[in-house]
Amino acid sequence: MEQIQPVCLAQIAQELGVAPSTVSRALRGDPRIGEATTRRVQEIVRRLGYQPNPLVSALMAHRRRGGAAAKAAEGADVMALVTSYGPPEDWRTKEVCRWEFEGIRQRARELGFRVEVFSVQDYGGETARLETTLRARGIRGVLLGFSRENGEGSAPGFLEGFAVAGLSAYFPRTTVHRANFHGFFNVQMALDHMRCAGYRRPALVVPELNNRISNNLWSGAFLDWQRQLLPADRCEPFIPAEVGGSGLGAFDAWLDRNGPDALLVYKVAVRPLLAARGWRVPEDMGLAYLYRTSDEMGAAAGVDGNLSAVGAAAVDLVVERLYSNQFGVCEHPKEVLIKGVWHDGVTLPTRGTSVPETSRAPHLGQVSAQVPQ
Q1: Residue 64: other Cβ atoms inside 10 A
Q2: Helical H runs in the chain?
Q3: Are both 217 and 126 inside the same structural domain?
Q4: Is the entire prediction scored with pTM above 0.85?
Q5: Distance (Å, whole) CA 83 – CA 125
Q6: What is the distance between the alpha carbons of residues 2 and 10, in angstroms, rounded to a whole number?
């Protein structure tokens, strides 16, 4: 059987009468190579069927950046973090965003990249101007992050020719690989811990908007987890349309209707609502947070979402696409999910022993066996 011999850069360079380094730069879109030469290289690449070896590309890119020694070098490759948050509130004021950005910057530095932030608002909302800037500077890696849900987070529209990945659920209408927190796992992990701490009827309290941003995975995880319980122990979730607009009446009615003994909460300020009812935490109601803020860490029970790891994983996706010469949107996007970690706290003290097996649905097995060690 005749073997197909792979085409190498040297063959292309010999046919063009240029150095192999010129061919390599042209294929990377280096602005120092003229348009005419780049077109000639691309034509021959298509005719000869050249396919770069991604492992060699990765090695050469690492050498060009000088490996770990180039972490803080001014000549490090630039990765663009494209944002579309807009006034009146900057994304840097959000704790969640700052944690993710910390992971982005640290991981990029480890891989020899320097992260620069490009706001769509700084270009008057004209993404064509932003595209021109990125191309003129030879920036090929783009991470989409920190957009609003009000329409300002629409797709940039210039992704062809860039190695792109998305952070969390930002720019939701853009079809790219993404790194996100594992919302489904985190909800069920928290509920497992609450149940094993002796709470018979833990319930979910999250805003409708944030639940929707999670693709309704939070409520889906909660309702799926409820199937493990006997019907008498099941609760419905409380999902108000607005964080501060639920009011005491709606919350009170939900409490009376469901009778939970512990709450898994995100953003909704349940403490004053419970206080207005004369209830104390944790004496009258156990409390855990789906994603603890820095103020709650060390005291409140709940989940650490490992958001810096989410940011780092998003950078890995961009670099992976750069090294394998994959550009533009993805036909079959993948999502990397980062699991959170549970932390005990004074807001959810143990109530005796774990809820007995007889109070769980017999066909679904033991809840406590699912709790990660």
Answers
A1: 15
A2: 9-16, 20-27, 35-48, 54-65, 95-110, 127-136, 183-196, 208-213, 217-226, 247-258, 270-276, 307-323
A3: no
A4: no
A5: 11
A6: 22
pLDDT of residue 355: 55
Give the three-class secondary structure for 288.
strand
Structure tokens at 232: 């008498």
Per-residue pLDDT, 369? 36
Q: Give me the count of residues in the chain.
A: 373
| Contact assessment for residue 180 and residue 169, using Cβ atoms and an 8 Å cutoff | yes
166-169 long-range Cβ contacts below 8 angstroms, 24+ apart:
166/314, 167/100, 167/104, 167/143, 167/310, 167/311, 167/314, 168/100, 168/310, 168/314, 169/213, 169/214, 169/215
Q: Give the whole-angstrom CA distance, residue 73 versus residue 75.
A: 5
Given a contact cutoff of 8 angstroms between Cβ atoms, the answer to whether 300 and 292 are in contact is yes
208 & 261 share domain: yes
The span from the CA of 126 to the CA of 104, in Å, is 25
Helix (H) or strand (E) holding 204, with range, is strand 202-205
Answer for the pair 233, 262: CB distance below 8 angstroms, yes or no: no
- Residue located via tokens 């932390």: 343
Residues 149 and 193 in one domain: no
Cα distance between residue 323 and residue 65, in whole Å: 13
- The residue segments making up the domain with residue 148 are 69-174+310-338
Q: Is residue 56 part of a domain?
A: no
Binned at pLDDT 50, 70 and 90, residue 366 comes out as very low
CA dihedral 79, 85, 91, 95 (to 10 degrees): -100
Residue 293, classed as helix, strand or coil, is: coil
